[in-house]
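[Q] Does anyone have a clean structure-token version of this?
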Amino acid sequence: MAALVLTALSATSPSTAGEDHDRVVARVPATWTPIVEDGGGVWGTATVGNVTVVGGSFTRVRARGAANAVTRNNIFAFNSNGTISNTFVPTIGSRVWDIVPAGDGVSVFVAGQFGSVNRVSRTNRIARINVNTGAVMTTFRSPGFDGKVMDVELKNGRLYVGGYFSVVGGQPHTALVALDPNTGALTNHVDLTFTDVFRSSTTATIPSGFSGVGIERFAMTPDGSRLIAVGNFRNVNGQSRIQVAMVDTSGATAALTDWSTTRYSTTCSGNFPTYTTGVDTSPDGSYFAISTGGAFNGGANSGTLCDSIARWETARSGAGQQPTWVDYLGGDSGTAVHITGSAVYIGGHFRWTNNAYCGDCIGPGTVKRSGMAALDVRNGLPLTWNAGKLPLRWGVMRFNSTAEGLWIGHDGTTLGGQPAGRVGLMPLVDGKILPDDDTGSLPGDAFQLGRVVAPTGPSPIVYRVNAGGPEVPSTDGYANWAADQDANSAYRNSGSNAASWTQGFGRNASVPTATPTEVFADERWDPNGDPEMQWNFPVTTGVPLQVRLYFANGYDGTQFPGQRVFDVSVEGQTVLDNYDIAADVGHSTGTMKSFNISAAANDGNVDIDLGHVVENPLISAIEIVRPDIVPPPPVGDDDVYRTGLTETAAGTTTQVGNGNVDWSSAHGAFMADGRLYNGWTDGTFTWRPFNGTTFGTPRDINLNGLTAFASELTQMRAMWFDRTTGRLYFTLNGQNTLYYRYFTPESLVVGGVRFTAPNTGSGINWSTVRGGFLANGKLHFSNSDGTLQTVQWQSGAVPGTVQTLSGPSVDGHDWSTGALFLRAP
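[A] Here you go.
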């Protein structure tokens, strides 16, 4: 009768994918778990009822509060108050690599590199042990393995076994088999041939030493239909599957799927026979994540996945698969990965995350995390959870989530700053529920920050030219700064070149407030002086003029005084003799020089010449104005306007209080969970509370040295946040491209890598987009022509037809200026 009951229970598969937690676990470990005092670490845990079994490589274990440790060789058990079992004392002479519940409520499967358990025959490498007595359950008999077993999972009445072996039960079986969980007999469910080591090294010891072809880790979807294996192999069934393979386990016979990737084909450090160290599937089975070691090998610039965590989608098929996201660890190894419903937990001996460009150093965007981190499942950025493992040593060997929280097997002495020798539990009960990142919906209220109303009366602007660059919108309601990107122009001679710079630019007090800093990001320079660069602007005769010339040195090769010197003349008179920008204002700093032309001297043409002295002359922008026309101040450049919107129409626009904020300097805006996020002219990124009427105190967002994003903020026009993917989309002044970076509002971390959204042929000219927000499955965006348009949105793709919702010719609304956002409560 006992055997019959056992058979019925063991057919039920305990979940080995991560628990679907509704929150991130606590940062501080439970204080009742025992302390493992020595050895290489804990490699596996399994909880059955109120008993937790721990396996690994150790000899001494001490209960919390106890004066003395007890001897436990490679395995022990304790109950839910931390009392170490005196009856569960199996004899295991070598390392335990994995433990999983057997599904009957009284036993576990234990796997590793041991020869036997309790000296019982047929317990080679894998055995089934009663958690209360420590006795081997002899109804399950190991078929015998010639190598070590690294990983086991019980799914759909089969016990899957992976590791470094080539003979099982006297028959050739490499790396992966399926056993009958009741008897241990080999089944014919898995018959795959793993061949060709990824790297052969008899001296390598990381992560599990060189053992030939085999599987380091594998994970299965909760329904048991897919198995993802990583390890030291290049081919499966004669097909290229370098270090990772996906197997269809839904049928009577397991079959290799056509899913494949070449992203793990690059050789990393020679210390790693395989640098794939861990894999896990999500609680819903829709995606999986792989952790790697291997040392820094170029990071994001190289396309390699050494020392990284990468997410992959399970449902995709075919060759050439690419990860959904990658978090680079800056040259340090990830050793374990585990996915719950709220986070991707990673462990290793890393010191930081979001470090895509620097090996063994702090690169742009780097966020410090020691040994463990919780990543945003959408984009791989670190959450605020910071429960580091110390000392770092090798790392976390294995995570295991239960209803109680997150169990961590590791090789250190502390977790979250508290004692937790080699094993610990981070409780769920004291964890943090993540915010919804609600970005609003329609019907709702759209806001324009710093909407400019064009002044009435004559314009003082005669010409504005952004030399060498694209058109730059004005900030004062007058003429935009005209583009000057073509080789030929009606206003200058040929032979000069255009250049653009990505760094952020400062400006000195000579630059008028209304002049956009963006004009300094481009320049026109003269390479040879044959002839010298000349500009000619036809003007009305008999009126006074002021010529404003804008300069900034953006080239690193001329950043010091004396490296670039040139002459400037206006109307044939030298106005700047031996002018040296770096000596005047320094590198990457804009300045303006103004020169007056009287009405009597105005001959109907303004002539500007630049001549060589040292290196090449340049000019950033040119502005010609009428000083006799005193412009009225721009109307409402710091005002805020609210317009009610539905999915089909715009309602009444009303002005609301601006909170004493100079919104004319805002570069893009979006809301999430009652927080208003803004970029600014000076390259800063902030958030503040906003309830629809009152603006709260702003807080700066730490960019963690991400100067490239700071520079982008100075040129940003529109921004919006996609809560589904955790991506911050934005447009840059004068560029017909939609960009994005990852962003996590919970931790306020910006991704270190910039991406370009796909061009789906919608016909949108991103250079004219002034603002945007996502609502009701659509992108709503404003244009320089004053219209507000909508288009279907699919994770950065806009495949649908653009529709005009509002605009000057539709309903009289003007959406051309001001940072646009939708209120999100």
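[Q] Thanks! Anything notable?
[A] The CA atoms of residues 455 and 634 lie 6 Å apart.
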